[in-house]
């Protein structure tokens, strides 16, 4: 059902791994931006954060996006947003233009095409920067690994758990691991939370 819906609306559905926010980087970046804005406007106890949502959302949509180099508001409605400090005439005149819809569609198409070009440029730049500093370990079924501890609360908490053994591979970077001493404990993980263990040969 979901596959058919995605096909009808032209969406590619990607599965993500739990506790791996990098899989959905755009959403995580958006959440981080919104958190900072909401925190800046909320009271000291942060109890009125929901009251700030309309203002924060409007601010986000009326600001130039760092990747697309476009205003989200303009890409949605085909016009610039009216801000509270913009000068507005008391009398508003509405005129009928039979070609307005075609002009609007052409304008939105140009905005979308330029946004796509800017997105591709940013993706290539991010990839180059990431590849320079990236460690790319390879893992095989049967390898022993430790897993990075998630949600560390104190600086003295253990950083890695295990040992685990890789028992199944889904993709080049996604594995199923099984705890060596607790055989019923399985996890699906990405390679960036793994640390290889090298067995000592006597």
Explained architecture:
There is one protein chain. The protein has 202 residues and is an alpha+beta fold. The chain contains five helices and five strands; from the N terminus they run αααααβββββ. A five-stranded antiparallel sheet has the order 4-3-2-1-5, with no helix packed on it. The longest helix is centred in the middle third of the chain and has 34 residues, at 100-133. It is elongated. Residues 1-80 form the Integrase catalytic domain. This is Integrase catalytic domain-containing protein. One of its GO terms (molecular function) is nucleic acid binding.
Give a summary of the structure in a few sentences.
By secondary structure, the chain is an alpha+beta fold.
Query: What is the straight-line distance between the termini?
Result: 55 Å
Count of discrete domains: 2
Query: What is the strand arrangement across the widest sheet?
Result: 4-3-2-1-5
Report the CATH topology name of the largest domain. Nucleotidyltransferase, domain 5
Strand content: 5-15%
Return the average pLDDT rounded to an integer.
84
One letter per element, helices H and strands E, the order comes to: HHHHHEEEEE
The dominant shape is elongated
pLDDT < 50 stretches: none
Number of strands: 5
Helix content: 25-40%
Strand count, sense and closure of the main sheet? 5 strands, antiparallel
Identify the CATH architecture of the largest domain: 2-Layer Sandwich
The rounded Rg comes to 24 Å
Helix count from the secondary structure assignment: 5
Determine and state the CATH class of the largest domain. Answer: Alpha Beta
Structural class: alpha+beta
């Amino acid at each position: 059902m979901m596959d058919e819906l995605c096909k009808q609306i032209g969406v590619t559905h990607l599965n993500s791994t739990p506790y791996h926010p990098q899989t959905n980087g755009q959403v995580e970046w958006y959440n981080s931006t919104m958190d900072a804005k909401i925190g800046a406007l909320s009271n000291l106890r942060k109890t009125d954060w929901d009251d700030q949502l309309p203002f924060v959302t409007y601010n986000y949509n009326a600001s130039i996006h760092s990747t697309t180099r476009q205003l989200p508001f303009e890409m949605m409605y085909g016009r610039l947003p009216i801000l509270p400090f913009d000068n507005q005439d008391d009398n508003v005149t509405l005129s009928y233009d039979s070609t307005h819809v075609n002009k609007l569609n052409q304008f939105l198409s140009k905005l979308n095409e330029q946004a796509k070009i800017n997105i591709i440029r940013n993706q290539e730049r991010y990839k180059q920067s990431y590849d320079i500093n990236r460690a790319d370990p390879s893992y095989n079924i049967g390898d022993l690994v430790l897993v990075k501890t998630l949600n560390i609360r104190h600086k003295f908490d253990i950083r890695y758990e295990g040992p685990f053994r890789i028992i199944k591979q889904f993709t080049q970077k996604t594995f199923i691991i099984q705890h060596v001493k607790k055989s019923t404990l399985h996890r699906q993980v990405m390679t960036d939370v793994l640390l290889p263990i090298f067995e000592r040969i006597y």
